[in-house]
Amino acid sequence: MFFTTFPRTYLVYNISTLIWMYVNICFVKEKQIPKPLLEKGGCKDKTHLGCGDGTCLPNEYFCDGSVDCPDESDEVKYIVNV
Ligand SMILES: [Ca+2]
Known about the structure:
The protein is built from no helices and 5 strands. The two termini are 19 Å apart. The chain has a 3-stranded antiparallel sheet with strand order 1-2-5, with no helix packed on it. A two-stranded antiparallel ribbon has the order 3-4. The chain is mostly beta strands. Bound molecules: calcium ion (CA).
């Protein structure tokens, strides 16, 4: 279990597939809130990422410890394969 204030990339051993994989992990909150869209948000500015509701914010706003997305999805726990 890693606790960070910003998304970081970790090498993680996946027990179900028995392979090592790189993942971005951000564990900040455990409450049920939407997952952020991130790169799938289709933000025009490439330095921005999408909140769960489609709002675009600068990527440094994600997992910085304070809520910025209207739906709080910038601070939700998420794992993204890289
Ligand atoms: Ca934030």
